[in-house]
Amino acid sequence: MGQSTNTRTMKTILVTGSRGQIGSDLVVALRKRYGATQVIASDRQAMPYTGAKLFAYEILDVRDSQGLQDLIERYDIGTIYHLAGILSAKGEGNPQLCWDVNVNGLFNVLEAAKFYQLQVFWPSSIAVFGSDTPKFNTPQTTIKDPSTMYGITKLTGELFCNYYAHRFGVDVRSLRLPGIISYSTPPGGGTTDFAVEIFYQAIKDGSYTCFVRPETRLPMMYMSDAIKAILELMQAEPAAITVRSSYNIAAVSFSAAELVAEIQKHLPEFTCRYQPDFRQAIADSWPSVIDDSQARADWGWRHSYDLPAIVADMLEHLSPQVGRDTEVLAKK
Q1: Is residue 186 a part of any domain in this protein?
Q2: Of these four, 16, 114, 116, 201, which has the most CB atoms within 10 Å of its CB?
Q3: Do both 215 and 312 map to the same domain?
Q4: Does the active-site annotation cover 57?
Q5: In-domain check, residue 171
Q6: How far is CA 290 from the centre of its chain?
Q7: Overall domain count for the chain
Q8: Does the residue 5 lie in any domain?
Q9: Inter-axis angle of helices 307-331 and 256-266, nearest 10
Q10: Confidence class of residue 329 from pLDDT cuts 50, 70 and 90?
Q11: What residue numbers bound the domain in which 147 lies?
Q12: Mean pLDDT (whole number) for 7-27
């Protein structure tokens, strides 16, 4: 590695995986808060539209440690929001790639953080839990026995974060995120994506085939709450952060059938059939309700969106968008 740039006057932010579900919204929030020039977005592929030239964007594969170091030095990076990763369902399709990206990518970021004295945010997941984990009010410290490669990589990542924080003093912070619901980006290959796909299909077709059973209950969170949680965690005083592996965090838990019923309050003709696939087994291994009292006590976490608020906001934002997409397709 080159000369460390520890005496920086301005801390630029790097977001990896910026085109993903969380990254797309987080980049907007960070630029609004800190200024557009202070946030460098990055991902493995080039941006598909010319508007990307208005903001700093770099192509980066997080497995490329030298490329990462070059970006850190070129932009005088002080904080990395490391979001690049392979999600649960896609990870089962290619376990080797999932391990390579999720584990080796995080290792490269933490090694760089150690050398350049960077602050790091990294998202873990409820996928670290497994069949022997208590499913209701899952505690902060409990059995973690993941059954997917995605979950294994996230558990490994938590151990990495805890190690680098205590062994090398890296200011790394993490949240065990539940399923995230957002209208900004299409579903990206996660087991909880039924809770996003369903809105697109409800608006476009009036029906949806759900890949989990109706009684399947999982922890979920609206994107606005997820972004708020990430920003609040990163702004908290270091002394307030008592968990360096990853914090349990929660908002609402609901079943697939409860989500359907709430959507039907707005779209009475909407119907849903259930056809569980391999993702059902993944969902069955995860908790139903998470105890996030540690996050609430340590840095004051509070969620804002319950199920009715999520459904109303999703439909309000997606209805015009899906309608336009459908019209474009019909004209082709």
Answers
A1: no
A2: 16
A3: yes
A4: no
A5: yes
A6: 16
A7: 2
A8: no
A9: 70
A10: very low
A11: 12-179+223-248
A12: 86
